[in-house]
């Protein structure tokens, strides 16, 4: 039996963390938190080199949680978010991030499924968020990347309880 890694992805303030926590609780599954949150907590700004450090932390956290071979592992983002953000903000992405992201699909022990969160919910400001006005544009970039890489994904929309039900229905 192949185990599943369920990755919650999408633009800023689209409900990723809420959905990731809900799914982990519902399934009793381990949760891999977003590494960027803790990494950037004490910083006033960041550089492109910080994205590589965040990517490495995110990857290590996922690998450590996956090592216990849970039936399902829920990830509040993964390298896709960092790859897209780097390309959008800096015009390019570190090769390590790109290569490691692509290698994630070659794992035989886990299948990956992405849940892309629609951004049509109210913006929740916090000091780490930067892009309240281009969430639809970013959503389109996520959708294109998921399609270009031929990744297994589904889209969730609506209120938090509706998104949760759509995600749960996808795995039943």
Describe the overall structure.
- With 172 residues, the chain is of the alpha/beta class.
- It has a single domain (3-170), classed as 3-Layer(aba) Sandwich (Rossmann fold), CATH 3.40.50.300.
- The protein is built from 7 helices and 5 strands, in the order βαβααβααβαβα.
- It has helices at residues 16-27, 35-40, 48-66, 79-90, 95-103, 135-148, 160-170, and strands at 3-9, 31-32, 72-76, 110-117, 153-156.
- It has a 5-stranded parallel beta sheet with strand order 2-3-1-4-5, sandwiched between helices.
- α1 (16-27) packs across α7.
- The radius of gyration is 15 Å and the shape is globular.
- It starts with a strand and ends with a helix.
- The mean pLDDT is 90.
Describe the protein's topology:
Layout lengths: L2 E7 L6 H12 L3 E2 L2 H6 L7 H19 L5 E5 L2 H12 L4 H9 L6 E8 L17 H14 L4 E4 L3 H11 L2
Parallel strand pairs: 1-3, 1-4, 2-3, 4-5
Helix pairs in contact: 1-7, 3-4, 4-5
